[in-house]
Amino acid sequence: MRVDAITIFPEYLQALDLSLIGKAARDGLISVHRHDLRTWTHDRHRTVDDSPLGGGAGMVMKPEPWAEAFAAVLAAGRAELGADARPLIVFPNPAGRVFRQDLAQEWSAREWIVFACGRYEGIDERVYEHLADEGHEVALVSLGDYVLNGGEVAVLALTEAIVRLVPGVVGNAASLVEESHSDGMLEYPLYTRPARWTDPSGAVREAPEILLSGDHGRIAAWRAERSAERTRQRRPDLWDARG
Ligand code: SAM
């Protein structure tokens, strides 16, 4: 999978070099390309924003650098992947569709994703129209119902959620199957050694005995019950929406 990210803060995305995503890149499972939007400005101040037409607070990202950036980034991607390669262009946006695990699963099969990070009040609307008119697949996705300062944090989250589902990225694929949200439910509670732990206040806390029983059938049933109980209590919306 090829991942491009266009941003005015490419250094923000250096975290993609770390941990499992960084290893996936070093192993050749993905390639990550960060681009500074200001590369495609032509004035002394490398301006990417201007005041909103119609008035109002804040600044809006100008369309010209974005159009040039997309032309260059898409050409570079096609040079690597072939002229027929079709990118999915993703704009993190608080007014977009809320990103969920099913979308992460779907997008983990994509060959090429281009992220575009907004800043200020957001990007001139005509950029989306231009890309759609060129026949590109464009998606606006939100991390949740709150507002960040820019799309970079969202790109880190989206990339991690998507790339960890690319086959080979997470060593033990079974660990992806029982996770929260993989089946619309939250994960059961987890325990490790020591089975009997004295916490700093002196209280003795035992792990559930069943987990030490070695009876895999009963353990699976216990976990399924805890998963259902936790989902019902913490996320009644998920519980009500289950198929
Ligand atoms: N004026 C915009 C609005 O009211 O919808 C908010 C702009 S926000 C300050 C700047 C940028 O941060 C957005 O263009 C987007 O890229 C990113 N962003 C903010 N909140 C986000 C969220 N919940 N999910 C994804 N991206 C977000």
Automatic annotation (TrEMBL):
The cross-references to InterPro entries, in alphabetical order and at most eight, read:
Alpha/beta_knot_MTases (IPR029028), tRNA_m1G_MeTrfase_C_sf (IPR023148), tRNA_m1G_MeTrfase_TrmD (IPR002649), tRNA_m1G_MTases_N (IPR029026), tRNA_MeTrfase_TRMD/TRM10 (IPR016009)
Query: What Gene Ontology terms describe what this protein does at the molecular function level?
Result: tRNA (guanine(37)-N1)-methyltransferase activity
Q: What is its EC number?
A: 2.1.1.228
Catalytic EC class: transferase
> Which UniProt keyword terms apply here?
Cytoplasm, Methyltransferase, S-adenosyl-L-methionine, Transferase, tRNA processing
| GO BP terms in the entry | methylation
What is the protein's major site of localization?
cytoplasm
Locations listed in the record: Cytoplasm
Annotated S-adenosyl-L-methionine binding lies at: G118, L143, G144, D145, Y146, V147, L148
| Catalysed reactions, semicolon-separated | guanosine(37) in tRNA + S-adenosyl-L-methionine = N(1)-methylguanosine(37) in tRNA + S-adenosyl-L-homocysteine + H(+)
Stretches assigned to the tRNA methyltransferase TRMD/TRM10-type domain: 1-240
Family, per the entry?
A: Belongs to the RNA methyltransferase TrmD family.
Q: Self-association or partners: how does it assemble?
A: Homodimer.
What does the function comment of this entry state?
Answer: Specifically methylates guanosine-37 in various tRNAs.
Q: What is this protein called?
A: tRNA (guanine-N(1)-)-methyltransferase
Q: Which organism is it from?
A: Brachybacterium halotolerans
- Which lineage do the record's taxonomy fields give for this organism? Bacteria, Bacillati, Actinomycetota, Actinomycetes, Micrococcales
Q: Which gene encodes it?
A: trmD
